[in-house]
Amino acid sequence: MGKGVKKNEERSKEKWRKEKGRMGKGLRKNEERSKEEWRKEKGRTRKGVKKNGERSKEERGKEVEEEEEEEEEEEEEEEEEEEEEEEEEEEEEEEEEEEEEEEEEG
C-alpha cells in the first residue's frame, strides 16, 4: 500500500470511531450511560432480569428511604422518652430535696 492509502485508512478508522462513539481502544466514550439507557429501554435491571420479575431500583430506593424514615422516627421517639424519663427523675430529685429541707426545718 502507498502512503495515500494508509492515510485514507487511518482517516476512515477515525471516522468510524466517531460514528460508533468509540475511542482509540475500542471502548465506548459513554459506555456506562449507554448501558443504562439500553437497560431503561429494555426495562431490565443490571442482572438482565425484567423489572416486573424483580423490584426495580427505584422501588428498592423508595423502600430504603421509608425504612430510614421509620428508623429516624423510632430514634426520635426514643429520645423523647429518654427526655421524659430524665425530667421525671429531676422532678423526683427536687421533691426529695424539698422533703429533706422540710425535715431539717421541722
Regions with little confidence, pLDDT below 50 for 5+ residues: none
The number of helices is 3
> How many angstroms separate the termini?
120 Å
Outline: rod-shaped
Helix content: over 70%
Task: Please state roughly what percent of the residues sit in beta strands, choosing from under 5%, 5-15%, 15-25%, 25-35%, 35-45% or over 45%.
Answer: under 5%
What Rg is obtained from the alpha carbons, in whole angstroms? 35 Å
Largest sheet: none
Q: Could you spell the SSE succession in H and E letters?
A: HHH
SSE-based structural type? mainly alpha
* Tally of strands: 0
How confident overall, as mean pLDDT?
A: 75
Characterise the protein shown here.
This protein is mainly α and 106 residues long. It has 3 helices and no strands. It starts with a helix and ends with a helix. 0% of the residues are buried. The model has no long low-confidence stretch (mean pLDDT 75). Residues 1-17, 28-40, 51-63 have a biased composition (Basic and acidic residues). Residues 18-27, 41-50 have a biased composition (Basic residues). Residues 1-106 are annotated as: Disordered. Residues 64-106 have a biased composition (Acidic residues).
Write out key terms for the chains shown.
single chain; 3 helices; mainly alpha; 0% strand; rod-shaped; 106 residues
Write the layout of secondary structure elements.
Blueprint: H1 3-20, H2 31-42, H3 57-105
